[in-house]
Structures are given as C-alpha cells and as structure tokens.
Amino acid sequence: MTETLDDTALQEHFEHRVAAEERVEPRDWMPEGYRKTLVRQIAQHAHSEIIGMQPEGNWLTRAPSLRRKAILLAKVQDEAGHGLYLYSAAETLGVDRAELTDKLIDQRQKYSSIFNYPTLTFADIGVIGWLVDGAAICNQVPLCRSSYGPYARAMVRICKEESFHQRQGYELLMTMMRGSPEQREMVQDATDRWWWPSLMMFGPPDGDSPNTQQSMAWRIKRHTNDELRQKFVDMTVPQAEALGVTLPDPELRYDDERGHYDFGEPDWSELKRVISGDGPCNEQRVARRREAHERGRWVREAAAAHAAKQAARSSGPTSEEVTR
Ligand code: BYC
User: What segments bear the compositional bias annotation Low complexity (predicted)?
Assistant: First the structure.
C-alpha cells in the first residue's frame, strides 16, 4: 500500500518536473515506460548513425578528388562519433552497448529506413548531405530540448556537426550543377530518388504514429512527425529552386493561406515495407554490420584480456611488498 502511494507521489513529482521543463538525469526516478521509450529511440538513433556510414562509405575509394575524399572521410568518421555519444547516452539508462549491438545485428531493433536505399552515383553523396542531413537537422534540433539530459546534451554536438554535413552536401551539388549536362542530370536523378525516402524519415503520419502522443507528453519529442515533415518541405523547396533542380512531386505548391507548401502523400506502404526489413538494401546493410562486428571480435577479446591483466596487477601485492 505504502509502495503504491510512494509510486504515485514519485510519478506526480516526475510529471511536474517535466512540465516545468526541468531536465531528467540518470539517477532521478523515472517511470519504466519513459526509460523504455528513451532506450528505444536513442538506440534506434545510434544504430542509424552506424548503419548510415555504409551508403556513404561505399564512395570513399571512388571520390573524384582528394578534397572530396577527405571531406567524405571526415563526415563518415563524425557519424561513428555520433553513434558512440548516443550509445553512451543509452547506457546511462541501464542498458549495455554490447546488448544493443546484438539487437541491431539480430534485427530486434530498428534503424532509420533511409539507409536501406543504394548510393548509385557520387551525386547521391551530395543529396544525402542536402536532404538526409537536412531532414536529420529538422528532426534533431528540437531534440536538444528533449527532457532527458544526456540525450539532449549529445544532440547539441551532433546538430553542430550535422550542419556542416548538410552544407558540404549542398556545396557539392552546387559545384556539380555548374558542371556538365551529365553532372546536372546526375544531381536531378539523385534528387528524384531520395526525395520521398527523405520525407519518410520523419516517421508515419501522426494518425498512425503509436508513440508520438506519449513521447510529446514526456517531452522526449518536441514536435509531431507531420509538423517536422512540413517544416522540412518549407525549408527545402527554396533550396531546390536555388540549386536549379525540381522535386518529384506534382502536388507541391505554396499555399498563401496556410503560409506553407502543400505536398503529396508519400507511399506509406513503402515505408512499412522498408521498416519491416524488405527495402532495397536491408539485408546487405545488416550483413555488413554483422561481418564487421565479427571481425572486431579479437580486438574486443584482446582489450578485455588486457583490462583483466591490469586489474589483477593493481589488486595484487606491489613489488615493494614482495621484496620485504
Ligand atoms: N525508419 O510511433 P512512431 C541521421 C518506427 S540518423 C525506421 O512515429 P517515434 C544520419 C518507430 O521506431 C537518423 N523506423 O515512432 C546518420 C516505431 O517503431 P517501434 C535517425 C521508423 O519513435 C548518418 C514505429 O515506426 N534519426 O540522421 O515516436 C548519416 C512507429 O513510429 C521510422 C533519429 O533516429 C523510420 N523512418 O518517431 C546521415 C532521430 N519512422 O520502435 C544522417 C530520433 C518510424 O515502436 N528519432 N519508425 O518498433 C525520432 O525522432 C523518432 O524515433 C522518429 C519516429 C521520428 C524517427
């Protein structure tokens, strides 16, 4: 009985703090559902950063110049870093990174649908920066105000780096658009292929999003999926015009009354298919991650053996004690 009363009081205190925009920290009491939702979202986000290295990594050895190669290498490396900050944030909630990695390679946890599409030409690298990182920024800047402290703080640094990523993509596309007709065609073709999958990154429409309402109430998410999708479209259409490409949506037009762009309906059955493992590259992405994890096994074992040796040495008798 006392326990129930205590739980109710704790719950009320928690909700009051969240409503007052106070940050929740790892040692604070939190409802189990809040903890689980955060682990789910942060793990999915971390996995997306790690799997997201693959489509771009595909072009590292074929970048058209040393400058483009250095830029791409730095970007892919940043993504590994983002994954690590996010796994660390998840670990503050009592889960283990090794356990999360197992769930990724056993496909028990998701990663963003966007990384299940192939990168067919170097223009895809520019379009990923422009559209995919652009969508990521729209989605992630509000997460800097997420109620969970370690997640919100990780997002601050990630967003700073994402802005660089977005600009490098746009700069690459600008350069290609000033090039040959073939280069301009490559940019248009990549834009046509990545536009709809980028809109799907924001998740299903609000009416079909089982998690949004509770995540908004807990201030884990600060905007709904549809709000962010609209923001992204409003931000991106003028950028497409400045670049000189068209977006593959005949319904796209500015609505003076709403003060926003109207746009067509993404193919939600495609999103469902890709999320459930049946996208163009799902199998390849997970297989590659599993293989990399297996190849790294000896490094993990060696590091663990070294740490055990160090620990045994520091807890054993000192050399001074032995000589006495
Ligand atoms: N792909 O109730 P909903 C990056 C799932 S990394 C796959 O709306 P929620 C970058 C969803 O998880 C980009 N799954 O969910 C990296 C849920 O399934 P479960 C990653 C999706 O969580 C490298 C179900 O569908 N960004 O930018 O309220 C290079 C129902 O959805 C997707 C983040 O992770 C999807 N697109 O909202 C370049 C940001 N959409 O878990 C760039 C943080 C939905 O119930 N995450 N699902 O089985 C979020 O903001 C939210 O988790 C989402 C979904 C908006 C994605």
Answer: 302-312
